[in-house]
Amino acid sequence: MLCRALFVAVLALGSPASALWPAPKQASTGNGTLFIDQTVQVTYNGEQVRWIPYRPHGDDGDENYPGSDFAETRINNQQISYTASYVPPSGPHFDSKQIVQGGLSRTFGAIFQQGFVPWMLRARGVDFEPALGGRRIATLQIVQTQHDSASTFRPLNGAVNESYALDVDAAGHATLVAPSSTGILRGLETFSQLFFQHSAGTAWYTQLAPVSIRDEPKYPHRGLLLDVSRHWFAVSDIKHTIDALAMNKMNVLHLHATDTQSWPLEIPALPLLAEKGAYHKSLSYSPSDLAGIQEYGVHRGVQVIVEIDMPGHVGIDQAYPGLSNAYGVNPWQWYCAQPPCGSLKLNDSSVEKFIDTLFEDLLPRLSPYSAYFHTGGDEYKANNSLLDPALKTSDQSVLQPLLQKFLDHVHGKVRELGLVPMVWEEMILDWNATLGKDVVAQTWLGGGAIQKLAQLGYKVIDSSNDFYYLDCGRGEFLDFDNGAPFQNNYPFLDWCDPTKNWKLLYSHEPTDGVSSDLHKNVIGGELAVWTETIDTTSLDTIIWPRAGAAAEVWWSGRVDEATGTNRSQLDARPRLSEQRERMLARGVRGAPITQLWCSQVDVHDCEGGNY
Ligand SMILES: *[C@@H]1O[C@H](CO)[C@@H](O)[C@H](O)[C@H]1NC(C)=O
Ligand SMILES: *[C@@H]1O[C@H](CO)[C@@H](O)[C@H](O)[C@H]1NC(C)=O
Ligand SMILES: *[C@@H]1O[C@H](CO)[C@@H](O)[C@H](O)[C@H]1NC(C)=O
Ligand SMILES: *[C@@H]1O[C@H](CO)[C@@H](O)[C@H](O)[C@H]1NC(C)=O
Ligand SMILES: *[C@@H]1O[C@H](CO)[C@@H](O)[C@H](O)[C@H]1NC(C)=O
Ligand SMILES: *[C@@H]1O[C@H](CO)[C@@H](O)[C@H](O)[C@H]1NC(C)=O
């Protein structure tokens, strides 16, 4: 009897029923076993699809990330040879079928080549695997109910319906129905999460049949900001991060492309920017690198939004002197938040011409893939204009109208080139700029900023540093001399200490503290990865699986609609542990979130007490 009770408990614990990440809006699952193999017949809108294992564009990615290496396999002793991987045609014209085909190729790659045996998620010493030879999934029928439009691939906030319905019946027939190809990609990610590798090798199974899922996101904007100026990241790192975002149903990668420290973006019309501004001539993004990154994102339902921060955070003095103030000034504390300072002059026709040239080169290259362009605007200090020979003042009442004129020009140009401007909150809340109501405002300072901006009628993104700054809590990067600087800064914490644990991210929702009539203006959130002390060696462990905690709140909501209560860490942690294992198997090397012991036992055996 005891044995049986234990068995049932183990089954309940081991039940992968709750294993999907992020949690679908509605899901019902059974406990039946179904196997899947490469003989599954796939159709898309009635047409047979031959799926081909996916290999990332070019060769980058393959060697760097284990698990993405595709090989031949045997099923029932029959050799299945994979032909060339499916790489969708390159270029800014997207075809729904190619998008779906790429998604299928990655989905089956994830199941058959990058699966894992979930021993670390099951009780020690218990044989949790199904007996081989059971029923197989015979068909996967994919139906897209509406046509994609050009804006599907460069969507304005909320313009794409990402919903999907996924059913797998006990007889082994699977159907995935969605109004957009993006919805199909989201559904395929869920489908891939149903299956585990069997330790027998060439067998893959789910123990959840029958499955019935109806799913859609709560917030349309679910992003991650990556700063590629403080440290440079290879194109393969960025594409790898896009893949990881898609695994968590996130849909925006915000590239903070330039800052005072480096300008890694090649602008053919202004060649000195990258020639003088990149850390090294090998560390910049060519137009084709950038297009490749954006295109890669479109194929995964991830919009890549580029930011050129201004008027502060601009370090172009060595390339084009005379356009900016305060670059390299020392002491720097009066002019900026970190050296080497630098900001565009506010009332200068050469600056306007520079911006026009920059935007006319860059923005037409972005607009096939993105609806937005971020013009920055954080941490701009009035003191910069003290050093401007034409102004020599830090009087905000003099500078405010000049900044307004600057923004009117910059945003006018963004719109003229077919994109929608985004800004950091300070332009509106500290500098009292009046911007178009199309503008998306990104907050980071916390407090009541979201409420205020939503009230002013802007669409708002939450990047509160109290929750969403993934770089916090690892210590100060500036160096201090002996004596008072050493004493005053001991023990050298960073400004946004402490670390934001996944549980803190998970406790927060962008609409927290915002009155309910304004929720419609809160379009989502972005995690921030500022990279003063982050490079390729730590990128995955800094972001994953932590970012997934915010991704679940943005997709599924803080409140579980089924129970009407806040989602519990006790429900989330085993699923997030599983998501980490899944991501590890796919080559994303996220950090552990608990002891290995905790992931094998009942969650109550790892529950903290109420004291
Ligand atoms: C599977 O589900 C069925 C129907 O709910 C139930 O009767 C059966 O006991 C379950 N089997 C196991 C092994 O949990
Ligand atoms: C998305 O499409 C689904 C299925 O057609 C529909 O039920 C849902 O209302 C749509 N969502 C939005 C926000 O339009
Ligand atoms: C502006 O610079 C002056 C020195 O010129 C300094 O005294 C003042 O504190 C600075 N203001 C700010 C806000 O940093
Ligand atoms: C800004 O520039 C305009 C045009 O050159 C000039 O007329 C105006 O005086 C300048 N404003 C300030 C505050 O210097
Ligand atoms: C913005 O407006 C507030 C409130 O009227 C005022 O205190 C502040 O000085 C203004 N800031 C600027 C830069 O004009
Ligand atoms: C749910 O979480 C929010 C924070 O997102 C918190 O303000 C609220 O009090 C929680 N509700 C309950 C019932 O615990």
TrEMBL record:
Glycoprotein as UniProt keyword: yes
Example of a GO cellular component annotation carried by this entry: membrane
Positions of the Beta-hexosaminidase eukaryotic type N-terminal domain: 20-194
InterPro entries from the UniProt entry: Beta_hexosaminidase_sua/sub (IPR025705), GH (IPR017853), Glyco_hydro_20_cat (IPR015883), Hex-like_dom2 (IPR029018), HEX_eukaryotic_N (IPR029019)
Pfam families per record: Glyco_hydro_20 (PF00728), Glycohydro_20b2 (PF14845)
Matching SUPFAM superfamilies: (Trans)glycosidases, beta-N-acetylhexosaminidase-like domain
Swiss-Prot/TrEMBL catalytic activity: Hydrolysis of terminal non-reducing N-acetyl-D-hexosamine residues in N-acetyl-beta-D-hexosaminides
Position of the signal peptide: 1-19
Superkingdom of the source species: Eukaryota
Keyword flag Oxidoreductase: no
EC code(s) of this entry: 3.2.1.52
Enzyme class: hydrolase
Annotated TM spans: none
Residue positions of the active site: E379 (proton donor)
Location of the Glycoside hydrolase family 20 catalytic domain: 219-557
GO biological process, alphabetically ordered: carbohydrate metabolic process; glycosaminoglycan metabolic process
One function term, GO molecular function aspect: beta-N-acetylglucosaminidase activity
Family membership: Belongs to the glycosyl hydrolase 20 family.
PANTHER family reported in the protein's UniProt record: BETA-HEXOSAMINIDASE
Protein name: Beta-hexosaminidase
Species of origin: Hypocrea atroviridis (strain ATCC 20476 / IMI 206040) (Trichoderma atroviride)
Gene designation per UniProt: NAG2
